[in-house]
Design a protein that fits this description.
By secondary structure, this protein is an alpha+beta fold. It has helices at residues 16-35, 61-69, 72-87, 105-115, 120-135, 144-153, 158-162, 199-219, and strands spanning 4-11, 40-47, 59-60, 100-101, 184-187, 191-194.
Length: 220
């Protein structure tokens, strides 16, 4: 019997812990593939709009975090914590380049539409490039021209995706997942891991989900 593992990953582009969690997931998957190459893997990404009420033009990034955390010192401490966690998985996050906290509704719609058009490799490249545009180059992920240019660089036809961009007037429907927080990983609809956990934690959840499937099939 072929064993399969479905991973549902919930994320938002503006959450640095989601990018860090994505890297930890990649590490866990590499270990699983090395030890169990026969397992069929399916990875499904689900967008979650953490801040659906942000205006179309977004809000100033620095002001947003100072208001949320209370002081410039608190912001610096939080960013240092994030940079340290990012460095541990080989990432460099440039907060100084980010000027705007964007409304991510269209970015999520873009990825959702693109997923149905291209290959898995294209989808993965687009997801990676959208994260990089924000955390490495400070791009505005609410800007339609920026989003379409990124999609085009990943091999998607611009015209096929333009109609899915509806602007901030239409929040992205994430099924209420924003209330649970992100990143959030679900393995074979059984095992749940919340937060940017180490690869070892994610790998353990994968093995547990696979073991439960074996047990369930034997008792059926």
């Amino acid at each position: 019997m072929t064993r399969a593992l479905r991973i549902d990953a919930f994320f938002d582009f503006i959450c640095p812990w989601c990018l860090i969690g994505k890297r930890q997931l990649n590490r866990a998957l590499a270990k699983l593939r090395a030890s169990h190459p026969e397992i069929e893997l399916e990875l499904v990404w689900h967008g979650v709009q953490l801040l659906p009420h942000l205006p179309a033009q977004g809000v100033p990034f620095v002001e947003f975090y100072q208001k949320r955390l209370g002081s410039a010192e608190a912001v610096q401490a939080r960013q240092a914590q994030v940079r340290q966690a990012a460095a541990a998985v080989g990432l460099s996050i440039d907060f100084s380049s980010i000027k705007t906290m964007p409304n991510t509704a269209d970015a999520h719609r873009l990825l959702e539409c693109a997923t149905g058009l291209g290959s898995v490799a294209q989808r993965d490249a687009l997801l990676e490039q959208l994260f990089a545009a924000y955390f490495h180059r400070g791009k505005d992920l609410a800007d339609s021209a920026t989003l379409l240019a990124i999609a085009e660089s990943c091999g998607y036809p611009r015209a096929a995706l333009a109609d899915c961009l509806l602007g901030a007037r239409c929040p992205f429907d994430d099924g209420g997942m924003g209330a649970r927080g992100v990143p959030y990983f679900l393995f074979n609809r059984r095992q749940v891991v919340s937060g940017a956990q180490p690869a070892e934690v994610l790998l353990q959840a994968m093995h547990q989900a696979l073991a439960q499937d074996v047990t369930g099939s034997q008792s059926a």
